[in-house]
Amino acid sequence: MDIRAVEAARLVDRLGRLVRSGESRQGINPAQWEALRFLARANRFSRTPAALADYLVSTRGTVSQTLIALESKGLVLRRQSSRDGRSVELELTPAGLEMLEDDPLIELARDLGKGSSDDGLTSTVEVLRDALRRALQRNGSRPFGVCQNCRYFRKNASGRGKHHCALIDEPLSERESDLICSEQQPA
Ligand code: SF4
What we know:
Helices cover 50% and strands 10% of the residues. The chain contains 7 helices and 5 strands. The protein starts with a helix and ends in a 15-residue tail after the last strand.
């Protein structure tokens, strides 16, 4: 085993612990922060309790408790799906969006940016993405990748900036092309 890879794994683990300890100071526990981050990044097909549970590699029961806590804090709204009346859609409230402006993860992002050259940061992101891809494969988890990198993404199918999903047969806006999706399959 390459000793540098072992050291990198230790650093990722320690940084994760430090970020999580900062999260608890704001009255929002780590699982609640992860749910807020997911809802800010997920597209409209993926903002559901089931997709959130898959993304967090958690159980539906645990995620349900997390969502109840976030709703009671006024950070998340739950409503009937407009596409399927039997499903539930989740949405961040304005207070939930505001809370994310103080996300403790931003401090880590700043530290990473300060300590790296442009090329170094790009290489770091590539190495971490590759490690994540391997971990997801081993775990049998869905990738939750970005829409525009999906095999079903049809760029500008209905005009400039008006994209289309060939799997769900729904239009996609420019903004949605940058969001993550529970159905994403790498192109
Ligand atoms: S194109 Fe892929 S990622 Fe985008 S909405 Fe469709 S299935 Fe999801």
